[in-house]
Structure formats: structure tokens, C-alpha cells
Amino acid sequence: MSQLANQYGAINLSQGFPNFPEDERLIKISENILKENIHQYTPMAGLPSLLEKIARQTEKEYARKVNPNTEILITAGATQGIYTAINTFISHGDEVLILDPSYDSYEPSVLVASGTPIRVSLNDDYTPNFNKIEAAISPKTKMIVVNNPHNPTGKVWKALDFENLETILEKHPDILVLSDEVYEYISFSQPHISFNTRDKLKHRTIIASSFGKSLHVTGWKVGYLIAPENLMQEMKKVHQFLVFSVNSFSQHVISQYLNIVDFSEISKMYLRKRDLFQSLLKESRFELLPCDGTYFQVVNYKSISDINDVDFATALIQKHGVAAIPISVFYNDHTDRQMLRFCFAKTDETLIAAAEKLCRI
């Protein structure tokens, strides 16, 4: 869709990255640190000062104490972390439950590991269907992937959802949880509940986080994993021969930036953008679904057209000059409920210009 948007000169609300400037303080740190002697390999697991600050942030945010030397791993983006986790613990014949609609890196990572992805659809309102999840578990199930806050739908799990999952997994003590929490600091309707806080599950959970998403520097590709030592030491073996160590410059800059950044401001900033985008589309013919977290707004276009979502998204670019992502591509069976995903991590000017075009449809 981004390629098509470029071809037609459309406003791109499809790909999930910001188009606004980074924090000036982050840029200043980058400029100051550039000429320092920081351009060689960091230790394989990550820059020690950054690992320590992640540990402090995890304790501050989630009241969980993690050992920076044995329970945290800096990765080349959360996607590499997710790939590493899956390819450490999944092998031929192992099954991995993936909740649809789902981010597109999970299944390929399972397939590379010679595992079997088992796609389980969420409910129509994008809440987890625990009856389906439990029914999908077999003796071959090795892992379940949870994404919260959820891309592409913007849904956020509630405490009851975690309790339901805990009840199911109590019966299956060998199943691991891979929790994709890259939007953990972008939650609106309620505080983000992390697996870091779930005492019944954190001993068998791998949590993926993203500085790219949290600090609006997606191109830096710096993320991290948190997991118990017994799981982490196995993932480090894969990580060492996959990337060895992550970009040293970015790690040094982020380590200093964590001294001054206020993560609570991130949700406030995106809440304002969400509210602006929703208000701009209020008079349009699109039906806006609730957006509880992330920087994605899902809309239904059933009052405009009955064509499939891929064709509608293509026409939206070609005829109306705005790019979105059709939700069906996030499903294994291409479930089409006439939904599109817009990214509102854009400047106000971009959102206003896009909304003007959308309101004319």
C-alpha cells in the first residue's frame, strides 16, 4: 500500500510509523555523542548502562525486578526479538497459537523454525475468544503469541482476559507465552496491563518491547526482550549468531535519553492525535471502531461500498488519495468485514489533509 501510495501521490496512513520530528533532546544527545568513542561492538546482550535503565524502568512501571545481566536482551527491533524467541523454542512439529487478526511477522518466524502456526480468530469485537483458544490447544502446542495493545485493531486486554488465559494455561504448564508489547506506552482507555505483572505466567513468558515505537525512532530498530534467566540464556545463544550485538550508537543515545524522557507523555500525545483524527472523521461515512491503544484507528466502510477491503483500499489510494491497510490481510483465512486500518501517528497537518479527502467520499 505504501508503494501504491507513492505511485499515486496519496497521503500515507498505511504503514505504522510517525512522520513528525523526533524529540529535540534526543537529537541533541545524538549530536553530542556522535564523536565519542562509542562505535565499536557493545557486549552481546546489550550496553550495560541501557540494560540497567531498562531494569529500573520495568520496576518503576510494573513493580517487577529483573536482573539486567541475565533477564534482558537488546535486540535489533522487536521483530528480531520475536523471531529469536520463536526460533529458540520452536522446532519441527511444534504448534504455536496466533490470534487473528495478527501482525505479519509471527507466522513466518514459526515456519522458518519448522513449526506449525495455528491461527485462532478473535471475536467480532476483537476481544480474545478463550473457548476457541482452549479448543485449539493440543499436545503439540508449545507457545501462544499475545499482542497487547493490539495491532491492527487498537484493542487492549482487560484484567479478566489475563485471568481467563491463566486459568487455561494452568492446565498446560509447558506452554510458553510470547507477549508482543511494543505499544505498551500507547494505551488510552485503561493503563496497560503487562505480562510483567502476571505472577502466574511471567516465569514462562517472553516479553518483546520496542524503543522504536515508544520513542518514535522506528528506523533505529532497537528493541528488547525480558524473560526469566532459564529462557533468556537459550535465546542469547540464537541472538549471538543471528546479529551478535545491536547498533552501538543507538544504544548509547537511548541510554542517555532514558534519563530525561517521560513515558507518561507518550500516551497523552497519541491520545490527542487519536481524538483529533476521530473528530475529523465524525462527519464522514466511515464507522469508527473503539481505539483503546496503539496509534491505529480501524474503520468500517460498509455504508460506502460492499466491495472487498483490498479492492476498496486500492481504490481509496487511486481515486481519493489516501492510503490505508485492509484488515483482511492480517487474517490467515482473509476474513473480510469491510474494515481498514489508518495510522494516526502523523502530523496534525497530515491528518487534517487526509480527513478532508475521506469526508468527501
UniProtKB/TrEMBL annotation:
Keyword annotations of the record: Aminotransferase, Pyridoxal phosphate, Transferase
An example molecular function term from Gene Ontology annotations? pyridoxal phosphate binding
Q: Which Gene3D superfamilies match?
A: Aspartate Aminotransferase, domain 1 (3.90.1150.10), Type I PLP-dependent aspartate aminotransferase-like (Major domain) (3.40.640.10)
A single Gene Ontology CC term: cytoplasm
**InterPro entries for this protein:** Aminotransferase_I/II_large (IPR004839), Kynurenine-oxoglutarate_AT (IPR051326), PyrdxlP-dep_Trfase (IPR015424), PyrdxlP-dep_Trfase_major (IPR015421), PyrdxlP-dep_Trfase_small (IPR015422)
What's this protein's family per the entry? Belongs to the class-I pyridoxal-phosphate-dependent aminotransferase family.
Q: Which PANTHER family match?
A: FI04487P (PTHR43807:SF20)
The protein's name: 2-keto-4-methylthiobutyrate aminotransferase apoenzyme
What species is given as this protein's source? Flavobacterium urocaniciphilum
